[in-house]
């Protein structure tokens, strides 16, 4: 059922929105016991909204159940970004995207689990005292990350559902592909970041996950657009949806053979002319530039968490430095600490030119490389991830560098602020394999169009 049909049924009373919401929440609680997709399920608020909609059902999303990644602020609901240091923090305001969704009648049912502050690709860097989310198709495997809860729940629920997630370097498409749902990461600035708990400001994008491409399209049109509260948000129109030629990123073919075959077969079946294109700079320098820039920005963003303004507190004793150190030592996870140290180092006088500024230059070269490719191709394509969702036992012993290398295919479009989407293209060992389409800035309509192709219909 499409959102429009669902909303029509809610408005006509064919769907009793209060009963429907109750069944959804019951299912969500049950699923959460086994799979750990939610940090918070906001039952009381969801019922209040359902009651309001039953009385007066207005809006394009009237009654639509939605979940929100835990790093997006929802007024009065715990918003922790998956970190102990924000435990108990209830924002006094809504993020702009939440404001827009609620105005259209969406019902927020909960905040989804994630890697702490988005630091990770498997949702195993859990900062809170919670359990790790498990893949909906195989409980021994990861959901992917960092938006693991959003992807897992969207895949498993039997109800209509749309989740709002966030990506800095791949956190939407990675878990969406591991769990077999569609994930759209829009052009940088298309959606307001106001109310997003930032990881790296020049990279962060709020995006959407759903099972149906039509749902992504409807929700995108509601939440996109300029916002005075975010000076980096764009005031520009989207480009048309025509697709004449596709470029297969040559370096991305260096993945698992089965994954490569699934991707190439899908491109063949699409019926659009295609050829291979090489992106040597993106492929060679993407990971290094991404992690330097992302960690540098993260290390300054995390400086505001001192146990004084919000969230976690310790007994007030000692001077400021002692208190601050104690709080940060006890409430930041291992990966957050690693990134603060590495990011601070990369920005330090004496090293800045060698690392941070060099990474910024590499980023510009990468943007130019993509821009040149988009003169010839409307869409670029690659597998979304180089592997299928790994088992917990397989990721347990990976070094930090091996972890970071998993993002090899997703950091490029994120560094260049390009919109990208993943959709399921097939299965390997019964696990979903995602294909990723990348468009030029503001080409979301092309990405949506390509995912509407009948080869992706279930
Ligand atoms: N895995 C990447 C990282 O750890 C991307 C995460 C994200 O997009 N938030 O930085």
Blueprint (SSEs and pairs):
Blueprint: H1 3-12, H2 17-35, E1 38-41, H3 43-55, E2 65-69, H4 96-103, E3 107-112, H5 148-156, E4 162-167, H6 173-179, E5 182-185, E6 205-210, H7 213-223, E7 246-249, H8 257-270, E8 274-277, H9 280-301, H10 320-331, H11 334-347, H12 356-376, E9 379-383, H13 392-395, H14 400-405, H15 411-415, E10 420-428, E11 431-439, H16 444-451
Parallel strand pairs: 2-3, 2-4, 7-8, 7-9
Antiparallel strand pairs: 1-3, 4-6, 5-6, 5-10, 9-11, 10-11
Notable features of this structure?
single chain, 458 residues, alpha/beta, eleven-stranded mixed sheet, 16 helices, 40% helix, 14% strand, binds glutamine
Number of strands: 11
Write out the distinct hetero groups bound to the structure. glutamine
If helices are DSSP runs of H or I spanning 4 or more residues, what is the number of helices?
16
Order of helices and strands: HHEHEHEHEHEEHEHEHHHHEHHHEEH
Strands in their spatial order, largest beta sheet: 1-3-2-4-6-5-10-11-9-7-8
> What amount of the residues lies in strands?
5-15%
* Biggest sheet record: 11 strands, mixed
Q: Please state the CA-atom Rg, rounded to the nearest Å.
A: 21 Å
Which of globular, elongated, flat, extended, rod-shaped describes the shape?
Answer: globular
Q: Please give the alpha-carbon distance between the first and last residues.
A: 13 Å
| Uncertain spans | none
Mean pLDDT: 97
Helix and strand content put the structural class at alpha/beta
Helix content class:
25-40%
């Amino acid at each position: 059922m499409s959102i429009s049909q669902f909303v029509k049924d809610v408005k006509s009373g064919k769907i009793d929105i209060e009963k429907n919401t109750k069944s959804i929440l019951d299912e969500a609680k049950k699923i959460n016991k086994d799979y750990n997709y939610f940090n918070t399920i906001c039952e009381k608020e969801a019922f209040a909204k359902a009651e309001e909609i039953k009385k007066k059902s207005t809006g394009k999303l009237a009654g639509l159940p939605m979940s929100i990644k835990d790093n997006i602020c929802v007024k009065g609901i715990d918003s922790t970004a998956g970190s102990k240091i924000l435990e108990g923090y209830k924002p006094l305001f809504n993020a702009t995207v939440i404001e827009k969704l609620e105005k259209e009648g969406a019902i927020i049912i909960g905040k989804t689990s994630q890697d702490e502050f988005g630091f990770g690709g498997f949702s195993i860097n859990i900062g809170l005292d919670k359990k790790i989310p498990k893949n909906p198709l195989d409980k021994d495997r990861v959901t992917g990350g960092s938006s693991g809860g959003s992807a897992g729940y969207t895949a498993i629920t039997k109800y209509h559902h749309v989740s709002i997630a966030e990506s800095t370097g791949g956190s939407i498409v990675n878990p969406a592909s591991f769990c077999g749902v569609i994930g759209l990461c829009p052009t940088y600035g298309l959606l307001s970041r106001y109310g997003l708990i930032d990881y790296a400001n020049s990279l962060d994008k709020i995006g959407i996950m759903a099972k149906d491409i039509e749902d992504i399209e409807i929700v995108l049109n509601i939440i996109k657009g300029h916002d005075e509260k975010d000076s980096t948000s764009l005031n520009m129109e989207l480009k048309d949806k025509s697709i004449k030629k596709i470029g297969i990123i040559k370096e991305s073919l260096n993945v698992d053979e089965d994954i490569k075959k699934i991707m190439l077969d899908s491109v063949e079946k699409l019926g659009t002319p295609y050829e291979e294109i090489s992106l040597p700079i993106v492929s060679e320098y993407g990971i290094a530039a991404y992690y330097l820039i992302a960690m540098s920005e993260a290390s300054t963003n995390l400086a505001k968490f001192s146990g004084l303004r919000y969230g976690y507190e310790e007994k007030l004793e000692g001077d400021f430095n002692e208190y601050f150190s104690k709080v940060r030592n006890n409430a930041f996870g291992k990966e957050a600490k690693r990134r603060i140290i590495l990011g601070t180092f990369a920005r330090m006088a004496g090293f800045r030119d060698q690392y941070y500024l060099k990474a910024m230059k590499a980023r510009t070269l990468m943007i130019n490389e993509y821009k040149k490719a988009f003169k010839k191709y409307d869409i670029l394509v690659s597998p979304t991830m180089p592997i299928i969702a790994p088992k917990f036992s397989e990721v347990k012993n990976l070094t930090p560098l091996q972890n970071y290398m998993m993002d090899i295919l997703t950091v490029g479009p994120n560094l260049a602020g390009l919109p990208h989407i993943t959709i399921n293209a097939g299965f390997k060992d019964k696990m979903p394999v995602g294909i990723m389409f990348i468009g030029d800035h503001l080409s979301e309509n092309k990405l949506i169009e390509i995912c509407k192709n009948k080869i992706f219909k279930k």
